[in-house]
Amino acid sequence: MWVPQALDESGPIYRALADALVGDIREGRLEEGERLPTVRALADGIGVTVGTVLRAYALAERRGFVSREAGRGTFVRAAGGRLAEDGDGTEGPVDLSRNEPPHIGLDATLRRALLGLARDGALGGLLEYGEAAGSARHRAGLAGWLGSRGLAADPADMVITGGAQQGLTIAMGALAAPGDAVLVEAYSYPGIRNLARFFGLRVVPVEMDGDGLLPDALDEACRVASPRLLYCMPHAHNPTACTYTQERRRAIAACAERHDLAIVEDDVNLRDGPRNQTPIAAMAPDRTLYISSLSKIVAPGLRVGVVVAPPALYDAVLAANQTTSWMPPPLMAELACRWIADGTAGELAAERLKISRALQAEAADHLAGIAYRADPDNSHLWIPLPVPWQADEFAARAREAGVIVSPSSVFAMVEPSREPAIRVCLSNLAGSRLGPALDTLAGLIAQRPAPARFQM
After folding, report:
1. CA quadruple 408, 410, 414, 417: dihedral sign
2. Most buried among 76, 133, 360, 369, by the most CB within 10 A?
3. Do 289 and 178 fall into the same domain?
């Protein structure tokens, strides 16, 4: 009978037990298809409760390392996770260009949630037309979740959306008119550029450093461009991975106040609690639309987001929400709120944090001696390239060597890109191929680019 060789008792025992089980599967001490001890047998064998073993097995199943079959038992799975796609598997290039959260197997978690939903309540109302802002109960549940991220939100100021992308669409549609200027970070989420084109807006980039937007540059852009709004991502910025300091956030809020500037704050990335980070929305609540989502924190396919709007802007935001989707899907919001209430959302977030930190540690080992920026709770890196590398040229060479990354030109809001750099998204789907892929990037960075052919 399998028993763990040792347990780390510094944290929850069920998590330590799951870690030990996963470790033995990864080390080959347990083989694919091998049946694990019954819950009772393992609990008695190591002196813990049945509930502890149940939670450990459930966590290992969410990670994709075991499968539980009704009436038969718990068995070791093959690869410890889903088969990778689009070049992340055992063949082809290693794709480190996709900014996705660490993968967790969610089959069992979703199945239990849907069975519980079927048992516990009337389902018909979840398929009817609902409130445009989402039900009061769902908004209250999501307000509690936002509180864990450092924002005390009134449910009456909230609109539930189908993810953060819809939230951004709503914000742009509600706040700006064709021809208006929108301030953005010099390197930013590419979807903002598409939205600006869709709404006929002018994108005005603002310089930034490792602490976020430069207040003096923001002040100058406000004077010159007379913008309607600022879009920014203060936490684990995509793509540069910087997190704004508190001082920088206060300076941005003060600048917005001086210039009567609306702010769209995009806060979708993982973090371990508030982490002493006050959202700009809490500093400038009367002019900030705060957008968040569960996709990168709980589950990518859980398309539930939220916009928190100042009362003066709420009606415009609600009308934009009705225009784009009429209402948030009640069934999806119900699932999200159940997971928040029963602790599943918190457990999934904690698991993704743990995987992200392990990936960051692996990257630090393979990229030793190379300067790069990373947020400890997230899995993307920003690596400035040495002269004379250009970002597009480096990305092409990396692809030829079997590694796909994103060049800084993808994110540059002004052409040409001023800082040759690459964004690297660490993926646990790459498995044992991640280390060699990072070694390949490190080797290329240490080289000089080959001379390019040209014509007279």
Report:
1. positive
2. 133
3. yes
